[in-house]
């Protein structure tokens, strides 16, 4: 199964001990577990081994022999200490895993994702009744379900694994760790986990949300007012502010991941692509994140060193989309998406190209620079909204500032102010999946109409051909009759 690599001892005598252990057992040192000073731990075996040697030979030793003997004692002492350290670490790791398995967690999950489930108890799968499938992603399916113990309606996110591959399990464990770190009204809260020792699947339990923003925005009967847009965007930025302050990048902000309840409360959901980050100790990250229409230019250009700006760009796309009533940059490919970004937001300056040193810069750098056209394209937007969109959709991520600064923009301080979530209209349940089903039904309806029309047209043509053939045949008969008469 999967492994969390324990650090082997640097002393050669202990290496065989380390290699014979399961690699997912972390090595825990004596001072960490027992409060024993490391010098005392090493001294005890050394003194125990010295007594027999002193009794065996009372003759004075030469200086070189004394040095060799001291080195030998030192290495044996270090080996003994390292051996004890490995055994102690393994025992504590085994104990923790044993407790988790006894609590009902499957061994494959405890071995790879012990930290993520630490302190929790799994729920039984038969304690939930599935009602309907409400969402589907690359790595998961989401179901509406009823908690049979409380009667509460919940959302169950079933995580799929690639044959229980350790990397796949670790990927899921990171999402659980991130969700456990976050606690904010505008961030979805993980209520529990459903699995069993005999199961190879895992469900994440969340509060059920009746809408997502993409589903509402796609509804032909819904048109958001400016106070409603401000209400939604303020909640989005508040949730992002909390995530960023806790060292979390969401990396997939889009309408279908922004859930809404009947009280108008918006919650950021689906942290499957989220990652921890530390601006003071940056680590390279993948650029293959964020859904294409909401992906910032630096990721399309292959950046691996990025920060909160990726989420703020997506938030700017959401704000413009809510005001425009449709997605503002719906590219079909990465090349087309980057072209749409340059046409709307302008191409990067020469200074930015030189400073960023992005991997794909030479491939995608336009031959001629594009001018920024946000104000011209969205001239009907309020000026305060345009100023915020200009900031969030800055080509240079350093110019996008932070979620905190966005919340302080005049977009939220000028009239009309954001409405209270509780005053938002009560919409019929709507999610992006529902919108897709409506579109699919509309396409089927149009296809059916076209098919019927095509069949009718073919029938008319056939009738015309038959009638024309009969007419020609009749004319020939008439001519023949007349010729005979003559």
UniProtKB/TrEMBL annotation:
<keyword id="KW-0597">Phosphoprotein</keyword>
<dbReference type="Pfam" id="PF00069">
    <property type="entry name" value="Pkinase"/>
</dbReference>
<feature type="region of interest" description="Disordered">
    <location>
        <begin position="1"/>
        <end position="80"/>
    </location>
</feature>
<comment type="similarity">
    <text>Belongs to the protein kinase superfamily. CMGC Ser/Thr protein kinase family. CDC2/CDKX subfamily.</text>
</comment>
<dbReference type="InterPro" id="IPR050108">
    <property type="entry name" value="CDK"/>
</dbReference>
<feature type="compositionally biased region" description="Low complexity">
    <location>
        <begin position="8"/>
        <end position="19"/>
    </location>
</feature>
<dbReference type="GO" id="GO:0005524">
    <property type="term" value="F:ATP binding"/>
</dbReference>
<dbReference type="GO" id="GO:0032968">
    <property type="term" value="P:positive regulation of transcription elongation by RNA polymerase II"/>
</dbReference>
<feature type="compositionally biased region" description="Basic and acidic residues">
    <location>
        <begin position="56"/>
        <end position="67"/>
    </location>
</feature>
<keyword id="KW-0472">Membrane</keyword>
<feature type="region of interest" description="Disordered">
    <location>
        <begin position="417"/>
        <end position="436"/>
    </location>
</feature>
<dbReference type="GO" id="GO:0008353">
    <property type="term" value="F:RNA polymerase II CTD heptapeptide repeat kinase activity"/>
</dbReference>
<dbReference type="InterPro" id="IPR008271">
    <property type="entry name" value="Ser/Thr_kinase_AS"/>
</dbReference>
<feature type="binding site">
    <location>
        <position position="157"/>
    </location>
    <ligand>
        <name>ATP</name>
    </ligand>
</feature>
<protein>
    <recommendedName>
        <fullName>[RNA-polymerase]-subunit kinase</fullName>
        <ecNumber>2.7.11.23</ecNumber>
    </recommendedName>
</protein>
<feature type="domain" description="Protein kinase">
    <location>
        <begin position="128"/>
        <end position="412"/>
    </location>
</feature>
<keyword id="KW-1133">Transmembrane helix</keyword>
<keyword id="KW-0808">Transferase</keyword>
<dbReference type="GO" id="GO:0000307">
    <property type="term" value="C:cyclin-dependent protein kinase holoenzyme complex"/>
</dbReference>
<keyword id="KW-0547">Nucleotide-binding</keyword>
<keyword id="KW-0812">Transmembrane</keyword>
<feature type="transmembrane region" description="Helical">
    <location>
        <begin position="453"/>
        <end position="474"/>
    </location>
</feature>
<feature type="compositionally biased region" description="Low complexity">
    <location>
        <begin position="41"/>
        <end position="55"/>
    </location>
</feature>
<dbReference type="InterPro" id="IPR017441">
    <property type="entry name" value="Protein_kinase_ATP_BS"/>
</dbReference>
<dbReference type="GO" id="GO:0005634">
    <property type="term" value="C:nucleus"/>
</dbReference>
<dbReference type="InterPro" id="IPR000719">
    <property type="entry name" value="Prot_kinase_dom"/>
</dbReference>
<keyword id="KW-0418">Kinase</keyword>
<keyword id="KW-0723">Serine/threonine-protein kinase</keyword>
<keyword id="KW-0067">ATP-binding</keyword>
<dbReference type="InterPro" id="IPR011009">
    <property type="entry name" value="Kinase-like_dom_sf"/>
</dbReference>
């Amino acid at each position: 199964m999967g492994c969390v690599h324990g650090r082997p001892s640097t002393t050669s005598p202990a290496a065989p001990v380390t290699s014979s252990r399961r690699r997912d057992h972390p090595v825990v040192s004596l001072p960490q577990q027992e409060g024993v000073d490391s010098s005392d731990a090493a001294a005890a075996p050394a003194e125990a081994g010295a007594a027999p040697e002193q009794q065996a030979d009372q003759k004075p030793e030469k200086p070189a022999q004394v040095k060799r003997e001291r080195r030998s004692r030192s290495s044996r002492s270090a080996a003994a200490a390292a051996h004890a350290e490995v055994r102690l670490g393994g025992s504590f790791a085994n104990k923790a895993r044993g407790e988790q398995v006894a609590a009902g967690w499957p061994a494959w999950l405890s071995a790879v994702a012990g930290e993520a489930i630490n302190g929790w108890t799994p729920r039984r799968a038969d304690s939930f009744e599935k009602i309907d499938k409400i969402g589907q992603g690359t790595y998961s399916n989401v179901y509406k379900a009823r908690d049979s113990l409380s009667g509460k309606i919940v959302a169950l996110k079933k995580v799929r694994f690639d044959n229980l591959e350790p990397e796949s399990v670790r990927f899921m464990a990171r999402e659980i760790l991130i969700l456990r770190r976050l606690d904010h009204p505008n961030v979805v809260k993980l209520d529990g986990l459903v699995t069993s020792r005999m199961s190879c699947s895992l469900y994440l339990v969340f509060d059920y949300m009746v809408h997502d923003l993409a589903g509402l925005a796609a509804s032909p009967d819904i048109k958001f007012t400016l106070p409603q847009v401000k209400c939604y965007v303020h909640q989005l930025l508040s949730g992002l502010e909390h995530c960023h302050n806790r060292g979390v990048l969401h990396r997939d902000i889009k309408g279908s991941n922004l859930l809404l309840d009947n009280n108008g409360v918006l919650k950021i959901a689906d942290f499957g692509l989220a990652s921890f980050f530390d601006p003071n100790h940056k680590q390279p990250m993948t650029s293959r994140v964020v859904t294409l229409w909401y992906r910032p230019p630096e990721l399309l250009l292959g950046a691996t060193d990025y920060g909160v700006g990726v989420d703020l760009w997506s938030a700017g796309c959401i704000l413009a989309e809510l005001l425009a009533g449709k997605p503002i940059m719906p590219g079909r490919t990465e090349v087309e998406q980057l072209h749409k970004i340059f046409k709307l937001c302008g191409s990067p300056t020469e200074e930015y190209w030189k400073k960023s040193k992005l991997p794909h810069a030479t491939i995608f750098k336009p031959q001629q620079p594009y001018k920024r056209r946000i104000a011209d394209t969205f001239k009907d937007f309020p000026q305060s909204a345009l100023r915020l969109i200009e900031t969030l959709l800055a080509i240079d991520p350093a110019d996008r500032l932070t979620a905190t600064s966005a919340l302080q923009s005049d977009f939220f301080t000028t009239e009309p102010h954001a409405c209270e979530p509780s005053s938002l209209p009560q919409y019929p349940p709507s999610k992006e999946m529902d919108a897709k089903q409506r579109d699919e039904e509309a396409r089927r309806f149009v296809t059916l109409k076209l098919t019927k029309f095509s069949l009718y047209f073919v029938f008319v043509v056939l009738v015309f051909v038959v009638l024309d053939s009969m007419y020609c045949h009749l004319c020939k008969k008439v001519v023949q009759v007349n010729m005979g008469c003559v």
